[in-house]
């Protein structure tokens, strides 16, 4: 994997891995490769350090368990599971897990906008770890296998047609994957237009400036009591806890992979006063923002 360093001011930057276009067959904006002990596809990635990527990664595992951190949550995948990591997400490989299966990587911009929207490529609210049933797994495995065959066959078609076929095959796989991700989220939280999902989407749009449960309830047309009930039923936590968790996640992302001063990180997540931000962050993580950042350097 190629990498670049994101720098801010004179401080040390945090490594971001860019899409390795030079290793892609015919230089197309995607790759499909096997994962295994004899194929060190992560050899240049810092296994023991959090980092981020600027492209999509989908891993289909044929063995397990594999532990992998995404956005500071640990996930354990087994055989038949998929892990979908999106651009900008902070993650860390496990040096003790055996990564076996198939890995798909895709450069942003490889697919047209309509396909991006239809497949929910940037639905960061969807779960990264997916557990397909037997029928779903068979369909995904077949689609990924076809995509891999098309990817590796770079001689029977001109490059323009080869790329077009890859886009169609990739779209077929991603549509299956997106359906699995959306149905998994719906099973956990209800349909897309349920009160909870409307609240979740509103928080995603407004968490950087709005931390008020009452304000969200008013904007959505629900009473505060109704909002408390539906959020607790969907997540087991209060609306305030849900909002705070999203704010903390964004703060962790900024602290982990930028050199933005801590005071400006606080402003970016809705805390103009640096002392209030530090108090809030410590309350939810048992660490100061400075200690959290230092731990990752």
What do you see in this structure?
- Helix content is about 45%, strand content about 15%.
- It contains ten helices and eleven strands.
- It has helices spanning about 115-120, 135-150, 160-190, 195-205, 215-220, 225-235, 240-255, 260-270, 275-285, 290-295, and strands at about 1-5, 15-20, 30-35, 50-55, 55-60, 65-70, 75, 80-85, 90, 100-105, 130.
- The strands form two sheets. It has a six-stranded mixed beta sheet, covered by helices on one side.
Outline of this structure?
The chain is of the alpha+beta class.
Report the count of strand segments: 11
How much of the sequence lies in strands comes to: 15-25%
Which assembly state applies to the chains in this document? Answer: single chain
- Tell me the major beta sheet: 6 strands, mixed
Q: Supply the helix-strand structural class.
A: alpha+beta
Shape: globular
Number of helices: 10
